Amino acid sequence: MEKLVITGPSRLSGEVSISGAKNSVLAILSGTLLVNGVCRIENIPDISDVDVIIDIIKSLGAKVSRPDSHSVLVDSTVIASTAPDYELVRRIRGSYYLIGSLLSRFHKAEIAMPGGCNFGTRPIDQHIKGFKALGASVDDSRGVIKAEASHLSGANIYLDKVSVGATINIMLASCLADGVTVIENAAREPHIVDMANFLNAMGANIRGAGTNTVKIKGVKEMRGGSYQIIPDQIEAGTFMIAAAATGGDVLIKNVIPKHMESLTAKLIEVGAKVTELDDAIRVEGTDHLRATNVLTMPYPGFPTDLQPQMVALLTKAQGVSVMVEGVWDNRFQYTDELIRMGAKINAAGKMATIESVPELYGAPVKATDLRGGAAVVIAGLMASGITEVTNTVFIDRGYERFEDKLRSLGAKIERVEE
Ligand code: EPZ
Q1: Phi, psi angle pair for 380, to nearest 5°
Q2: Rounded to whole angstroms, how far apart are CA atoms 282 and 279?
Q3: pLDDT (tens digit, 9 = 90+) per residue, 229-246?
Q4: With contact defined as beta carbons under 8 Å apart, do 31 and 8 qualify?
């Protein structure tokens, strides 16, 4: 077991480059199963969730090679199984995308209920509603989802809840269906657009991604090609928050500034200076952060996946801040760890009230989940003394070389064996 040891406080400064988007890559690698040919994917982030999804698609028969740590070639011409290994699938949430791909191309899929971070119940009823509308029968009893169809036909599907996963899964399932599928009340996250661009590059016909109506005209076959994944909006946001929270001055390179607008607005509100460049953002912090209120929402709202990191920053923002979690039922587990470091946070249900403290103190803490892990690391950079973060496996699921990138910005952070 490993842990991160941080000696704070640090003022981050310098330049950092953002990796490819985790939540795109999981969907895109699953989407390669739709393709009767070879896909070359570039800008793959080197994170453990990618290793898991690659192991899964290999186990189904796809031939996968990695010419370098940021490129993957997948040849899905021959797929031998539509029932991926139970234990592998349960390790990542993104494995539910295999259902859409396998159902679309082979008309059947059998996979375990997906795993992932625990934020309360994580239903997939909207995915299932979509598959059924396309003509599949779906049985999700006993922890396994079995989907089958003799034929898939385009349909109009209205999502009762804006869901990233359901939007992408229905896009996948309908790529090879007969006729036109229309998804209404679709999610609009940057990785929805990335996914549609990837599928179109492989031969699909998808329009409207990035708006709340996505139209998919089924095609007979997808033949392969090359695609480059967009930069990770959440990794970029994590570094922006870390720069502001430590009173630092960081140039965050390889980002799409438009994707960061909700965070940029909040960082300016709390007193940071944010300068948008073509494909970079400079964040200059201040020693006098001010409190603010934040509500997380689907894109273009403030992302739930930056909620914990923002709360870490707000622990020292003068005054009382309120964070309302508008997406997940239970995403404040990590606040107990910040409280160990001296933060004053009262979290109940979907709301947390954060009263500023003059200082945080280093303490032994754990990553409760991926973004909660990033939040305690940021708090460790803000705190005086030594913070030890255990459960680093959560952080490694979604951040490429997190401590190396922070160290290059001047942080005193080491990974050691426990
Ligand atoms: C994706 O999860 C991301 N995961 C999450 O990122 C992210 O927090 C979330 O989108 C919201 O942006 C991946 O891409 C692998 P949803 P997803 O379906 O697709 C409800 C991270 O830290 N809902 O948009 O599973 C659901 O309960 C991770 O990188 C239904 O009710 O999220 C939630 O309240 C964690 N029925 C809301 O919708 C459904 O069928 C949004 O969920 C589906 C979802």
Answers
A1: -65, -35
A2: 10
A3: 999 999 999 999 999 999
A4: no
Pocket lined around ligand 1, Cβ cut-off 6 Å:
23, 26, 93-94, 117, 122-127, 161, 163-166, 187, 304-305, 327-328, 370-371, 398
Please classify residue 329 by burial: count the beta carbons closer than 10 Å to its beta carbon, then call 0-12 exposed, 13-18 middle and 19+ buried: exposed
Angle 380-359-406 from CA coordinates, rounded to 5°: 25
What's the gap in Å between 163 CA and the centre of ligand 1? 6
The answer to whether the beta carbons of residues 285 and 246 sit under 8 Å apart is yes
Indicate if the pLDDT at residue 119 is higher than 80.
Answer: no
Q: Average model confidence (pLDDT) for the chain? A: 96
Measured CA to CA, the distance from residue 76 to residue 344 in angstroms comes to 52
**How far is the centre of ligand 1, averaged over its atoms, from the C-alpha of 192 (Å)?**
12
Residue 394 is which amino acid? F
Name the CA dihedral angle for 334, 339, 344, 350, rounded to a multiple of 10 degrees: 20
